[in-house]
């Protein structure tokens, strides 16, 4: 089965649209997301545009602030401070990666944790670690929602996550652990990756290498969640998994595009609404 992330994301967006209508009737202002983009990385521009479209679709406010790559760290920190203090702003997202002269750590720490719709602030990271209520990173959250939508129960299942980044690998591993899966996190220093991946009931690939995982990495009837967004030899968008090579072997797989990506965007909308409620009572 091919998991149609785009369609599932659209259904959730329609539900969010209804929530937004209720907000319109009961509050004096609407949820607002601010996205800061520094530099002109074409992929980042696409994602940011998708985020703006998502906001328009469900009816929340969005503002994209663009700066060229010479924008300084100090200027960025000052801008974040102003947004932190702006009562009309519910969500702040600084698009990653940042230019080398700006410290990612300083920037992520500067965002008010209750407006941190990416869930990257240490406060939210700690809450996720402890299993307490927090703003959860969008891509990992989207993957868990997808599994829920296809009625897949992680309890007692073997999950292998390949990739250990703070934005995907580590948080998705924690979320699967919370759902009682047995979780392995693999990375570039892992020995015998094929063997480890081959025992996964659920394989999550987040390494950023086009078509790296072929059928030899995948157990029959596994679920494959492909997070990678890459360009293949023909400059076509593709995942970390060789989709054509594995699709007949798996129980279910997310395609690229149209799999995890649209869910990420939708979870960002959901987090913005969640942040709005948390800050306004409700
Ligand atoms: N669909 C979506 O919504 C999103 C997609 N992405 C995409 O997901 C991919 C991963 O993103 P992100 O987590 O930020 O990536 P990072 O580059 O931060 O991390 C990559 C991870 O993969 C590991 N890795 C790299 N090569 C190998 C290998 N050959 N074998 C095993 N492990 C390897 C690295 O190991 P080590 O730690 O040892 O270096 C690292 O942990 C990218 O393609 C990105 O574009 C990202 C976010 C959202
Ligand atoms: N602060 C921050 N938060 C992020 O969440 C964040 C980030 N920085 N930096 C980059 C990664 C990557 N990411 C994606 C979002 C949407 C799609 C997406 O919409 N993908 C579509 C199509 C993409 C296309 O057409 O290029 C799809 O897969 O169908 C992909 C990737 C969010 N990230």
From TrEMBL:
<keyword id="KW-0554">One-carbon metabolism</keyword>
<dbReference type="GO" id="GO:0006164">
    <property type="term" value="P:purine nucleotide biosynthetic process"/>
</dbReference>
<dbReference type="GO" id="GO:0005829">
    <property type="term" value="C:cytosol"/>
</dbReference>
<dbReference type="GO" id="GO:0009086">
    <property type="term" value="P:methionine biosynthetic process"/>
</dbReference>
<feature type="domain" description="Tetrahydrofolate dehydrogenase/cyclohydrolase catalytic">
    <location>
        <begin position="3"/>
        <end position="118"/>
    </location>
</feature>
<dbReference type="InterPro" id="IPR020631">
    <property type="entry name" value="THF_DH/CycHdrlase_NAD-bd_dom"/>
</dbReference>
<dbReference type="GO" id="GO:0035999">
    <property type="term" value="P:tetrahydrofolate interconversion"/>
</dbReference>
<keyword id="KW-0368">Histidine biosynthesis</keyword>
<comment type="similarity">
    <text>Belongs to the tetrahydrofolate dehydrogenase/cyclohydrolase family.</text>
</comment>
<dbReference type="InterPro" id="IPR000672">
    <property type="entry name" value="THF_DH/CycHdrlase"/>
</dbReference>
<comment type="pathway">
    <text>One-carbon metabolism; tetrahydrofolate interconversion.</text>
</comment>
<keyword id="KW-0378">Hydrolase</keyword>
<dbReference type="GO" id="GO:0004488">
    <property type="term" value="F:methylenetetrahydrofolate dehydrogenase (NADP+) activity"/>
</dbReference>
<dbReference type="Pfam" id="PF02882">
    <property type="entry name" value="THF_DHG_CYH_C"/>
</dbReference>
<comment type="subunit">
    <text>Homodimer.</text>
</comment>
<dbReference type="InterPro" id="IPR046346">
    <property type="entry name" value="Aminoacid_DH-like_N_sf"/>
</dbReference>
<feature type="binding site">
    <location>
        <position position="229"/>
    </location>
    <ligand>
        <name>NADP(+)</name>
    </ligand>
</feature>
<keyword id="KW-0511">Multifunctional enzyme</keyword>
<dbReference type="InterPro" id="IPR036291">
    <property type="entry name" value="NAD(P)-bd_dom_sf"/>
</dbReference>
<dbReference type="InterPro" id="IPR020630">
    <property type="entry name" value="THF_DH/CycHdrlase_cat_dom"/>
</dbReference>
<keyword id="KW-0560">Oxidoreductase</keyword>
<keyword id="KW-0521">NADP</keyword>
<dbReference type="GO" id="GO:0004477">
    <property type="term" value="F:methenyltetrahydrofolate cyclohydrolase activity"/>
</dbReference>
<dbReference type="InterPro" id="IPR020867">
    <property type="entry name" value="THF_DH/CycHdrlase_CS"/>
</dbReference>
<dbReference type="Pfam" id="PF00763">
    <property type="entry name" value="THF_DHG_CYH"/>
</dbReference>
<keyword id="KW-0028">Amino-acid biosynthesis</keyword>
<keyword id="KW-0658">Purine biosynthesis</keyword>
<feature type="domain" description="Tetrahydrofolate dehydrogenase/cyclohydrolase NAD(P)-binding">
    <location>
        <begin position="137"/>
        <end position="278"/>
    </location>
</feature>
<dbReference type="GO" id="GO:0000105">
    <property type="term" value="P:L-histidine biosynthetic process"/>
</dbReference>
<keyword id="KW-0486">Methionine biosynthesis</keyword>
<feature type="binding site">
    <location>
        <begin position="163"/>
        <end position="165"/>
    </location>
    <ligand>
        <name>NADP(+)</name>
    </ligand>
</feature>
<protein>
    <recommendedName>
        <fullName>Bifunctional protein FolD</fullName>
        <ecNumber>1.5.1.5</ecNumber>
        <ecNumber>3.5.4.9</ecNumber>
    </recommendedName>
</protein>
<comment type="function">
    <text>Catalyzes the oxidation of 5,10-methylenetetrahydrofolate to 5,10-methenyltetrahydrofolate and then the hydrolysis of 5,10-methenyltetrahydrofolate to 10-formyltetrahydrofolate.</text>
</comment>
């Amino acid at each position: 089965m091919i998991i149609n992330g785009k369609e599932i994301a659209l259904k959730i967006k329609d539900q969010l649209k209804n929530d937004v209508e209720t907000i319109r009737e009961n509050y004096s202002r609407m949820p607002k997301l601010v996205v800061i983009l520094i530099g002109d990385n074409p992929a980042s521009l696409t994602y940011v545009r998708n985020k703006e479209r998502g906001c328009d679709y469900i009816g929340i406010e969005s503002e994209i602030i663009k700066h060229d790559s010479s924008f300084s760290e100090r200027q960025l920190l000052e801008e974040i401070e102003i947004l932190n203090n702006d009562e009309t702003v519910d969500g702040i997202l600084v698009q990653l990666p940042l230019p080398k002269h700006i410290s990612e750590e300083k920037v992520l720490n500067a965002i008010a944790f209750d407006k941190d719709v990416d869930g990257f602030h240490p406060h939210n990271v700690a809450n996720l670690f402890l299993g307490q209520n927090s703003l959860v990173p969008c891509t990992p959250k989207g993957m868990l929602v997808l599994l829920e939508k296809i009625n897949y129960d992680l309890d007692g299942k073997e999950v292998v996550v390949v990739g250990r980044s703070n934005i995907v690998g580590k948080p998705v591993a924690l979320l699967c652990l919370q759902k009682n899966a047995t979780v392995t996190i693999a990375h570039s220093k892992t020995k015998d990756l094929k063997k480890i991946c081959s025992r996964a009931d659920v394989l999550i690939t987040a390494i950023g290498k086009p078509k790296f995982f072929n059928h030899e990495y995948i157990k029959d009837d596994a679920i494959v969640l492909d997070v990678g967004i890459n360009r293949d030899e023909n400059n076509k968008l593709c995942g970390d998994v060789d989709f054509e090579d594995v699709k007949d072997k798996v129980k279910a797989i997310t395609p690229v595009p149209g799999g995890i990506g649209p869910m990420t965007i939708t979870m960002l909308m959901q987090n913005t609404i969640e942040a709005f409620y948390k800050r306004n009572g409700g």
